[in-house]
Amino acid sequence: MAEGTPGNGKRFLPLRLKLLLAYGSFFLLTFIALYFNLIYAVTDHADKQVKDDLVDTMTGAAAGVDTDLLLALAATGEPNPEGFSNDPRYLALIEWLDTIHQAEPDAWPFLYLRGETPEEIVIVVDLHAIYNAPHAAGILQVERGNIEDAVNGLEEPTFRHGEGPFVRQLREWSAANQGRWIGALQSSMADFLESSGIDPPRDFGIYKDQFGRWATAYMPLTSPTGEKVAGIGVDYQADIVEAVRADAQSRVLDVMLYSIPLGLLFLYLLLNRFVNPVKSLIQIARKIPKEDQPVSFHGIRETWMFDEVDILAQVLEEMVVDLRKRERRYHAVISTQNTVVIRSSPEGEFTFYNQAYLDLRGEHAVAEQASITGEGIHPEDRQAALKFLSEEVPALTPEIPECSHEMRIYDQHQRLRWMIWTVTGIYDREGSLLEYQVMGQDITPLKETQQKLEQANQRLRDISRDLITAQERERTNLAREIHDDLLNYLSEILLDLDGDVPADLVRETYLQIADRLRNSIYELRPPMLAYSLYHGLDDYLDHLQRRIKDETRVVVEVKNSGSNYEQEVKTQLFRIVQQACENAVEHAGASEIKVSGQLLPDKADLQISDNGRGFRWEGEQSVNDSVRQKRFGLAGIFERGVIIGAEVQISSASEEGTCLSVRWYRDGRSSKK
Fold first, then answer.
1. Radius of gyration for the chain, computed over Cα atoms and rounded to the nearest angstrom
2. Region for 569 from its dihedrals, namely left if φ exceeds 0, alpha if ψ lies in -120 to 50, beta otherwise
3. Burial of 320 (0-12, 13-18, 19+ CB in 10 A)
4. Is residue 396 within 8 Å of 432, Cβ to Cβ?
5. What was the pLDDT predicted at 12?
6. Sign (positive or negative) of CA dihedral 427, 432, 435, 440
7. Greater confidence, 456 or 400?
8. In terms of Cα–Cα distance, which of 264, 268, 297 is closest to 280?
9. What angle do CA 559, 561, 563 make, to 5 degrees?
10. What is the pLDDT of residue 232?
11. DSSP label at residue 11
């Protein structure tokens, strides 16, 4: 696997870059949080300074206001054409306000009274009249809207409420982006922060209009009798707050511009110090599966401070030592095995072979990189072997990693050997094929033993066939002799008897002997079998029913289509049916025996079933199995089937009855299976 190329298809991202992104993001977020906190702290400090100055200015200004003069001016004062007044009382009051302004140039005081309604105040004197007339309020000018703080200021010292810092910033951005979608979004966010209480209005705040930034405070003015009759307000020019904020922002940004790149560079160099040993371990780990490549941990564990990487290197080094020992033991064991062991790459190049392979194929096979695909395969097995290698081996998967094939090959001495080759695919964790392991087992002695056993079995079958044929011949001769000689002799005895023996007793004895002899003759050779198998079976089953009387019911459902089989086929099929029926009568205790099937010119298909007690039958069994179980009747049935090439099958279980089926094909299809 190439470096940086993961085996599971996932996109590779170096650990160094991951750590750099993680720590860099952390540092960036920390700087951003620090930036806003610093700006907030600086602004808050400037706001506090403005608040303190405003309190001092307002207290001093209130102390010098003549409330009687103010009330008299409000009662009788007249505005001039500019909206202000030339009344000496007006000029005296505004002169005092100007004195305050001269002492505190950022302070712009004004005097006001309660309006006719709680939602109104009346401005009497405004210092802006002599410095900035467009910004000033005229004499006796009524103000409505956003005057709650001014009304409260008639009762107690009050500051004009201001928006929270985040809401205020969003309001300013919204004003700068007025008419655009971003401005509407900023305004909505400001409303949400304010209404939800996340950034609520403050009891002291700085606001902005077209003339600058301002903070305003209000204080009641009392008459000589101590009655609160008016109020003084001071607009404090708070542009200093904006200047302080801008200066702080500039300083913090400068610090960030220098410190963030330097921090990232330092972090990158530091990460290299920790990541490089891991990278070296990866390169070493890639060499471990390749025994021919040296593995050295020199330099990885020689660090100035022991850490987890050193522990990992130590554990990996111990694993490599142990792995090499196990590999040597494994190769030593494999090399001394009689089983052929080969390992090859997916391209077919040898990576390992043991001595058994050299003994089998010789040195030239190794030099030619010959495996089971090489020369030496028996011509009759070559096509199947090539199909195995071209289809089954490439189809191996991690779920089905193994397949086998049997073939004949010639060893280095040109001796024919039977081999079973087992190919196993070896995969990594991602399911990629690493190599093939091929194991070859020499089964030549087993094959030779099987051939000898088959030859012996064939000789036994020939002897058995000859024996059965001789038995049938002897049965036929014996039946003929009994019928032609013994029965005639008994008839003559009956005619020659004198009158001293009662005739009824003689006749009864004669009939019993004759009946027994006829049954024996019938069992030896059914006469109707000479005509056809169908007539022979029909006659036998009728005779069987008469013999067993009402103890067992015999049902016959055999269809005949004019079949005419060879004598040996007729005889063996008849004896199979006869033996199956006799077994049912003698051993099964059946109340019903059924013989069914069909006899056609090209085949015979018969079934003999009973409802008796049955017996345990282990699936596919043979003549030898039946002999070992001392079921000689079944052994004879199987042997007769082998003689004519018929297929015999038995199905039985305890207390479930027995069914025997026999199928014979004229073209020998059964014997080919």
1. 60
2. alpha
3. middle
4. no
5. 65
6. positive
7. 400
8. 297
9. 110
10. 93
11. P
Tell whether the model's pLDDT for residue 166 goes beyond 90.
no
Please state, as a whole number, how many other Cβ atoms lie within 10 Å of the Cβ of residue 460: 13
Query: Closest Cα partner for 202 from 40, 395, 24?
Result: 40
What is the spatial distance between Cα 611 and Cα 14, in angstroms, rounded to a whole number? 77
Length of the chain: 673
Q: Which of 391-395, 634-638, 655-659 has the lowest mean pLDDT?
A: 634-638
Contact 46, 53 (CB under 8 A): no
C-alpha distances in Å from residue 418, one per residue of 263, 370, 378: 73, 18, 10
According to the model, what pLDDT value does residue 90 have? 92
* Torsion sign across C-alpha atoms 570, 576, 580, 583: positive
Q: How far is CA 607 from CA 386, 472, 544, 572, 594, in A?
A: 44, 23, 17, 15, 8
Measured from the Cβ of residue 288, the count of other Cβ atoms closer than 10 Å reads 14
Q: Residue 140 corresponds to which tokens in the numbers above?
A: 């006796």
Tokens of 546: 């008469």
First to last CA, the chain: 51
DSSP run (H or E) holding 93: helix 88-103
Three-state secondary structure call for residue 603: strand
CB of 608 within 8 A of CB of 577? Answer: yes
d(CA 500, CA 75): 186
- Express each pLDDT in 175-205 by its tens digit: 778 878 888 887 888 788 777 767 677 667 7
How far apart are alpha carbons 90 and 79 in whole angstroms?
10
Q: Where do runs of H (alpha helix) occur along 497-532?
A: 503-524
Contact 652, 614 (CB under 8 A): yes
Rounded to an integer, what distance in angstroms lies between the CA atom of residue 512 and that of residue 523?
17
Yes or no: say if 204 and 159 are a contact pair by the CB < 8 Å rule.
Answer: yes
Is the per-residue pLDDT at 291 higher than 70? no
Q: In what order do the strands lie in the sheet with 350-353?
A: 350-353, 340-344, 433-442, 416-427, 402-410
Give the Cα separation of 330 and 335 in Å (integer): 8
Q: Is 370 left (phi over 0), alpha (psi -120 to 50) or beta?
A: beta
Angle at 330 between CA 364 and CA 407, to 5 degrees: 45
Mark residue 422 as left, alpha or beta (left: phi above 0; alpha: psi -120 to 50; beta: remaining).
beta
DSSP states of 45-88 = HHHHHHHHHHHHHHHHHHHT--HHHHHHHHHH----TTSS---H
Please report where in the chains the tokens 């900023």 appear, as a residue: 186
Residue 557: count of CB within 10 angstroms of its CB: 10
- DSSP labels, 408-420: EEE-TT--EEEEE
336 forms beta bridges with none
Cα 364 from Cα 367, distance rounded (Å): 5
**Is the distance from CB of 581 to CB of 544 less than 8 angstroms?**
yes
8 Å CB contact between 376 and 410:
yes
Enclosing H/E stretch for 341: strand 340-344
Could you tell me which of 526, 522, 528, 595 has the C-alpha nearest to residue 556? 595
Whether 12 and 5 have beta carbons less than 8 Å apart is answered as yes
Q: If you count DSSP H runs as helices and E runs as strands, how many of each does the chain have, helices first?
A: 19, 17
Tokens of 253: 């940004």
Query: 59: closest CA among 206, 213, 221, 204?
Result: 221
